[in-house]
Amino acid sequence: MSRTFKAFSMDPKVHVPPQFPGAVSDASPSTDPRWLGPWWMPVAAVWAAVLALRHALYDSGVLPSRRGALPTLVIGNVELGGTGKTPHVLDVAHRLEGLLGEGTVGILSRGYGRTTKGFLWVKDGETWRDSGDEPWMMQSRLPSVAVAVCEDRLHGLERMATARPALRVVVLDDGMQHRTLRPDVLVGLVGRPDAHTWRLLVPAGPFRDLPSRLKRCDH
User: Fold this and answer.
1) What is the 3-state secondary structure (H, E, C) of 133-177?
2) At what angle do helices 133-141 and 85-100 cross, to 10 degrees?
3) What are phi and psi of 31, to 5 degrees?
4) Are 209 and 80 spatial neighbours (Cβ–Cβ below 8 Å)?
C-alpha cells in the first residue's frame, strides 16, 4: 500500500457503527478542580519548557524519528481525560477495513494497566489484564482486526509487519506523544472547545502536551 492515505470523510462527530453499542465519539472534557490554581503555574511553566525543548529536538532532527514498518494513522490528543480516542480508533479501523478488505487493518496500543510487558497480540492474552482493558475491548468488537500492544511503537509495528504480511495499515491508539515514530497521518482529538486558546498544562490546567501540537495534525 502506498504510504499516502486516500481521503475519507470524517464528520466532526465521528459516526460509530451500530455494532459498537454504548460507544461515544464526543467525550466530555474532564474537569478537576485540583488543576486550577495559581500556585501550580510555576510547575506548569517548567513542564511546558521541557516539552517545548523535547519537541524542538525531534523537529530539528537532533533526536531521531522515523516511519514505521507499516503505514500508520495515529489518533491522539494533548489533554488529560477522555476525548473519545478509543471509539474513534474503532470507527477508523472499521472504515479502513471496509475500504481495504478483511485482514488488512491492525490496531496498536500501549496497553495501559496491563500485567505483561513487551509485544503481545491481544488474542494471545488469557484475560483483559494481559493486554489492558481497552485493547481487549477493541479486539472483541473488531474480531477481524489484528490488535496488538507494545510500549515501543516502532518495535510493535515491526513485529506486526513480520507476523501479518497481509496488513496494509495500522491505527495507533494514543501515539501522539511517541515522537520516535513519524506517523503517515496524525489525527488530533479535542475535548475542550477552548483547546487552542487555554494553554495551561498540568498541574495548573488540563493539558498533558503543548496545545500548539494540534497545528501539526493532518486532521
Assistant:
1) HHHHHHHHHCCCCEEEECCCHHHHHHHHHHHCCCCCEEEEECCCC
2) 30
3) -125, 110
4) no
- In the DSSP assignment, the letter for residue 115 is S
Q: What is the pLDDT along the chain (219 residues), one digit of tens a residue?
A: 446 455 444 443 333 334 333 333 334 444 444 455 667 888 999 999 999 999 999 999 999 999 999 999 999 999 886 678 899 999 999 999 999 999 999 999 999 899 999 999 999 999 999 999 999 999 999 999 999 999 999 999 999 999 999 999 999 998 899 999 999 999 998 876 555 545 688 888 888 899 889 889 988
User: What is the widest separation between alpha-carbon atoms in the chain?
Assistant: 53
Domains and CATH numbers, the chain: 34-216 (3.40.50)
**DSSP 3-state percent helix, strand, coil across the chain (nearest 5):** 35, 15, 50
